[in-house]
């Protein structure tokens, strides 16, 4: 039997594959497991493996990663499927399979394909609570949202942070989250905008320089500012201006709350100015030798904080 695991949800995909390997090890041992990374695998070696009989076992598990990057192997996928022995389990693992390609359509038709999609931003805090509870710990919905705000939506990274927090204290709190986790760029940009809108120019510049010290590229800072201003724009134009309205628009609960807080400090005309000036800044940085740090700090000082 041939299975295909794909999709952007790294955590869910990895967890599914780990479960397959773990159960196979218990039943058949590690001598019957073969792994190939198509990035550097020989096509003939892969084909021989899937059609080879298991050694000292009644079953063989073959895992093939990154199939789509190996054109030669991808072109012979039908041959691979035809050659696979009934006694063998083949797992094709490729997060970057393009759904528009003939390869994806063939795998969907001829194999048992599972597409691991990322969960929505609104569902991540609930998922965190489930993970913590299943591990014997506790966390409130508010603190789960705080963890998402600081770390981001990546489930694999969140899982690692949850394990770290649980080792410190099984009852995860705001204090332990702030002590043991590093804020993501997203979280810091919220703080930066908050400081700038409050007229705290010194803090806004300090937060920007912290990001630069952490090797965050100015173009990424601009991208995050653009994303945050988009969220603030949703809040400014929301009718009514409530968290529920913004959640319906697709924002995560904590993001909705923060965006509303920022939106209450500006009006539509001022928001348009911020977006227009940021767009102009982005264009200038991409089309000239303008000093990015100086330009961004000037934007923070003169455009937002003024």
Write the layout of secondary structure elements.
Blueprint: E1 2-6, H1 10-28, E2 33-37, H2 43-51, E3 60-65, H3 71-75, H4 77-83, E4 88-93, H5 102-110, E5 112-115, H6 124-134, H7 141-151, H8 155-168, H9 174-180, H10 185-197, H11 201-213, H12 218-237, H13 243-248, H14 253-263, H15 268-287, H16 292-304
Parallel strand pairs: 1-4, 1-5, 2-3, 3-4
- What is the helix/strand order? EHEHEHHEHEHHHHHHHHHHH
Measured as a percent range, the helix fraction is 55-70%
User: How much beta, percentage-wise?
Assistant: 5-15%
Major sheet description: 5 strands, parallel
What is the spatial order of strands in the main beta sheet?
2-3-4-1-5
Q: Helix count?
A: 16
**Total domains, how many?**
3
The whole-number mean of residue pLDDT values reads: 89
Overall geometry comes to elongated
Terminal CA distance: 65 Å
Q: Please give the radius of gyration in angstroms.
A: 25 Å
